Amino acid sequence: MSELRLDRTCLSYRTHPGGRGCLVLLHGFLTSHHYFGQPLGGRIEPFRLVLPDLLGFGASLKPPVAYTLEDHLSCLSDLVEHEGYPEPLVLGGHSLGCLIATALAARLPEGRVSGLVFLNYPRFTSGGHVHATLRKGSPEYKRATEGIPAHGDEEEIIEASGGMVQQFAALLPPALQDEAKHTSPVAMAGTTQHCLFAYRPDPDLDAIARLPMLHLHGALDRVAPAGHIWERAGDFPNARWVLLPDAGHHLVHSHTAAVAKEILDFLNALASA
Length: 273
Prior knowledge:
globular, 7-stranded mixed sheet, 12 helices, alpha/beta
């Protein structure tokens, strides 16, 4: 049997038509393309919208791989090569999707990506930083990880991270449980370990710092606090920063009209430049 090639054929994805540019959005943990498709489908015309299920999530293939960052990027870079048109191409995501979109933008050929749209960017500087923040911000996560100190050994935390989030997943609100059922536990564990707890986005953010960016964040977000990414605001000269004072971690669902307008205005400005 030939070895599975990780490319766009491993991914399930949906598209919404448009001819003025292309926006590729990556969902976060335990969800799928539905996370963006339900609130934004039809709201950003005349721009094309491409919504993949990450490898191991939703209806995408769930192969027996490690689900490293490079595993995800192999599939997504091939998808962008074939589906990321017409230009300008904009990448973005929510939460975990922001991190993967950052790494993808930094690795694509210079000039390929014209802009970035980030919702609730989860910037962490270490695995311990992730763990401590989630323990402080989520009672469910704290209950699921009792016995693991908030500032424990870095390698131990990263090694245990996949299992910790699997426990957390079982405690999600009912509204997210159906989506979570379509996520491979192996994919969730590997992605958690490699793309959240072990990935440091700052070097890749430095590489794409001059790209136009739209940062949308909820002021009430306790699992990805706005201050973690906003402390770097001065490093991104072409970024627009929008803080919604009464929004939390899922602002695209709680503040759909405001988020859709910000994204559409951002895309129109890029296309007109």
